[in-house]
Amino acid sequence: FWRYYWRVNIPADANISWQTCTSTCDSAIRTWGDTVAECVIDKLCPSHTVVVFAYPEGKENAQN
User: Structural domain of residue 30, as residue ranges?
Assistant: First the structure.
């Protein structure tokens, strides 16, 4: 239980990458997320808070 947390909704289709036949064997099958945005927000958030990043799919879930 976190006393002070906030949730950041980032579109589910942000930076989705799939593995292809030319990818190396040790690469992930699929990656997603906006690591740059997450890093910046984590660095700038107040130290007594926890940031939860969500990647909801669809417009209905993005507003919840």
Answer: 5-62
